[in-house]
Amino acid sequence: MLDYVRLRPGMTLADIGTGDGLVGFRAIERAGASIRVLMTDISAPLLRHTEDPFSPLLLRCRAAQFPDTEKARSLPITNYGERDLVRFAIDAGFTDIHLELHIEVRTEDSLPWETFLRTSPHPLAPSLEEVFEKESTRDERAYLEVRMRAIFESGAQLGAERIAYLTAKRP
Ligand SMILES: C[S@@+](CC[C@H](N)C(=O)[O-])C[C@H]1O[C@@H](n2cnc3c(N)ncnc32)[C@H](O)[C@@H]1O
């Protein structure tokens, strides 16, 4: 969406229905601190989320690991879904295609924090450690680590595992 907004330093962006501020904070990341973003939402709890200094820092990490760029959108490793599987099967000439998608949402088995810091969510993404080093000041890193580590070590973090089973007939 932000590709269609010509962001310029000094401008004001109205982000109506901002949710947790994903688009608004990303606009600030892209255009720099001189733009103003007006965030509104019908949901007070979501808006309170945007007031927490943790949110923009967390979104900055997410943006570094999942960049919203043309390249990322064109690569299967960063932009891939079960519809692609169906498309590949059709293109390969299969018929009677059946796809079952299983999504398991449960609390994640927790890795030691130090290990988690050195892992990345997909092969093209930097690790959290690298993101901290490149994108954060020392104070931001210390603040992020305390907040993220508390969530991580609480064991309450939910993770979703998706498995797609596809069967098809080759005529
Ligand atoms: C699909 S979410 C999108 C959130 C965010 N813009 C994003 O891209 O991540 C839609 C948001 O619009 C908000 N919303 C729905 N109706 C609204 C209204 N009448 N006025 C303001 N916000 C509204 C919802 O509370 C929700 O946060």
Descriptive notes:
With 171 residues, the protein is of the alpha+beta class. The chain folds into 2 domains: 2-51, no CATH class; 75-169, no CATH class. Helices cover 44% and strands 20% of the residues. It contains 8 helices and 4 strands; from the N terminus they run βαβααααβαααβ. The strands form 2 sheets. Strands 1-2 form a two-stranded parallel sheet. The protein has a two-stranded antiparallel ribbon with strand order 3-4. Strand 1, helix 1 and strand 2 (36-40) form a beta-alpha-beta unit. Helix 1 (22-31) packs across helix 3 and helix 3 crosses helix 7 (128-135). The chain is globular. It starts with 11 loop residues before the first strand and ends with a strand. Bound molecules: S-adenosylmethionine. The site of S-adenosylmethionine has 11 residues, from helix 1.
Task: Summarize the model shown.
By secondary structure, the protein is of the alpha+beta class. The protein contains eight helices and four strands. It folds into two domains: 2-51, no CATH class; 75-169, no CATH class.
